[in-house]
Amino acid sequence: MSTLEQVRINFSNDSVGLLNFCLGFIMFGVALNLKKDNFISLINNKKAVFTGLASQFLLLPAFTFLLIFLIKPHPGLALGMILVAACPGGNVSNFYSMVGKGNIALSVTLTAIATVVAAFATPFNFSFWGNLSPETSEIIKSIGLSFTDMFKTVSIILVFPLLLGLLVSSKTPKIASMIEKPVKVISFVILMAFIAVATIDNLDVFKNYIHYVVALVLLHNLMALGIGYFTGKLFKNSEQDCRTISIETGVQNGGLALVLIFNFFDGNGPMALIAAWWGVWDIFSGYIIASLFAYRSKRSTNKLKQVVK
């Protein structure tokens, strides 16, 4: 495992800048989709919103630390897992909530609120849980990570574009409605192209070291999806809301994790491998869980029709 310490991902400053732009553009697109109804649903469905936020920012980081304590991965991999768990949900979660017959209004609302909360919660959770273990704490101290610097980075990449999108949506709703879909499509295509190019540029690294992270990310992601769903059930949320909370907790913003790794950890190989593979894997796992939820809905509908007959 010691060879992992020498791994570095090939990522230029221009690439980091492009990834920053991609994430900001995506959040701008998410905000264009926010309507007054989303904020009304927040008032009417406070329990689901607070359950979703607690699942993402309290339970997932805590259970991630517990998982690390039990399986004891390489410190760099462990720190990558903590960073991913500290990030908010990714915007593609809104699409998966729609596919999985979840509560789309709740999904969009949670994405927006979690993005704002993340400005404080992401650096706090990362610093708190990362410093609890001597091995991971040593890595954090070696680069002199500043809570304030991370707060500024998360705010610039996620919060400011979100606020700009909200401003456009509220002041010029016709323009927002016109550009909403193109922005979503363009941002998704740019991000996928970026991931493809970055993967090709680092193909040797992935081929040689990906086996270290596949099982870890699979286990971590399954745990995240489970935490979201069963926390929703524990607090007696509706089935629709539980599905959305599961997806919001399980589909994390791996892109943000990568940006933070390249901004603050000089492309630390083990951390970047976790974040990069998470970003690829949760695209598949999100669709799989959403499809399973949709299948359950279809079966329930068919059973109900048979009973009626």
UniProtKB/TrEMBL annotation:
<keyword id="KW-0812">Transmembrane</keyword>
<feature type="transmembrane region" description="Helical">
    <location>
        <begin position="77"/>
        <end position="96"/>
    </location>
</feature>
<dbReference type="InterPro" id="IPR038770">
    <property type="entry name" value="Na+/solute_symporter_sf"/>
</dbReference>
<feature type="transmembrane region" description="Helical">
    <location>
        <begin position="150"/>
        <end position="170"/>
    </location>
</feature>
<feature type="transmembrane region" description="Helical">
    <location>
        <begin position="244"/>
        <end position="265"/>
    </location>
</feature>
<feature type="transmembrane region" description="Helical">
    <location>
        <begin position="16"/>
        <end position="35"/>
    </location>
</feature>
<feature type="transmembrane region" description="Helical">
    <location>
        <begin position="47"/>
        <end position="71"/>
    </location>
</feature>
<dbReference type="Pfam" id="PF01758">
    <property type="entry name" value="SBF"/>
</dbReference>
<dbReference type="GO" id="GO:0016020">
    <property type="term" value="C:membrane"/>
</dbReference>
<feature type="transmembrane region" description="Helical">
    <location>
        <begin position="209"/>
        <end position="232"/>
    </location>
</feature>
<dbReference type="InterPro" id="IPR002657">
    <property type="entry name" value="BilAc:Na_symport/Acr3"/>
</dbReference>
<feature type="transmembrane region" description="Helical">
    <location>
        <begin position="271"/>
        <end position="295"/>
    </location>
</feature>
<keyword id="KW-0472">Membrane</keyword>
<keyword id="KW-1133">Transmembrane helix</keyword>
<feature type="transmembrane region" description="Helical">
    <location>
        <begin position="182"/>
        <end position="203"/>
    </location>
</feature>
<feature type="transmembrane region" description="Helical">
    <location>
        <begin position="108"/>
        <end position="130"/>
    </location>
</feature>
<protein>
    <submittedName>
        <fullName>Symporter</fullName>
    </submittedName>
</protein>
<dbReference type="InterPro" id="IPR004710">
    <property type="entry name" value="Bilac:Na_transpt"/>
</dbReference>
